[in-house]
Design a protein that fits this description.
By secondary structure, the chain is of the alpha/beta class. The protein contains 6 helices and 7 strands, in the order E-H-E-H-E-H-E-E-E-E-H-H-H. The chain has one domain: Alpha-Beta Complex (Maf protein), CATH 3.90.950. The longest helix has 20 residues.
Length: 220
């Protein structure tokens, strides 16, 4: 490529941003996140699936900021709770809930429950301003502890125990976590194809520039 591509992570979550940056640091691309820009309107995450919400966030941020955007929508699906909290994971205890509040609600919901099986799921959507997108998915199976363990990570990491490593996500290093986590597995798929992704980004940008030159600013 003639110049380094720009990619915006469609998140203000610094922990999530750090994980993704570490995973893509070897590639010739400049990565920023929403903390590097002024306020933009909030996306309403009203999709029924992780894929719908990931695409909504990526496409919206790409369109508003004018750069390719990578968004993830991920969440915890607890077997005994019928897959709850699922797409509502970040706001399980309310629209402005903290991680501690979400964890406390989950502990209360599972009180007296023997079945502690759970799965973290992640969908990554990489969209360009014209709306085209690529999708990558990942999942990780584990169990929910009765009390939090570990000081790292974010979200439900202190409660999510991964048996093969004998640790919660919050007890792992960033490298350990990304090697096995739902987001890490989705990122593995993205990273394996990233050279092609960079070419795809460049081609979509040229197509959009061409259409704008013809007076048609929207690709159909």
């Amino acid at each position: 490529m003639d110049k380094r591509a720009m990619l915006v992570l469609a998140t203000g979550n610094r922990g999530k941003s750090h994980e993704i940056r570490k995973y893509l640091e070897e590639f010739p691309i400049d990565i920023s996140d929403l903390n590097d820009f002024g306020p933009i309107p909030q996306v309403v995450e009203d999709g029924d699936t992780f894929e719908e919400n990931a695409y909504k966030k990526a496409a919206f941020v790409a369109r508003v900021l004018g750069f390719p955007a990578l968004a993830d929508d991920s969440g915890l699906e607890v077997e005994a709770l019928g897959g709850t909290p699922g797409v509502y994971s970040a706001r399980y205890a309310g629209p402005s809930a903290t991680d501690a509040e979400n964890n406390a609600k989950l502990i209360a919901a599972l009180e007296g429950t023997a079945n502690r099986k759970a799965r973290f799921s992640c969908v990554l959507s990489l969209a360009v301003p014209a709306g085209h997108a690529l999708t990558y998915e990942g999942a990780c199976e584990g169990t929910i502890l009765h009390v939090p363990r570990g000081a790292g990570g974010f979200g439900y990491d202190p409660l999510f125990y991964y048996p093969p490593m004998g640790k919660t996500f919050a007890e792992m290093t960033v490298e350990e976590k990304t090697s096995v986590s739902h987001r890490g597995r989705a990122l593995q798929g993205l990273r394996q194809e990233f050279e092609k992704v960079l070419v795809w980004i460049e081609q979509r940008g040229k197509e959009e520039d061409y259409r704008r030159g013809k007076g048609d600013i929207c690709l159909r």
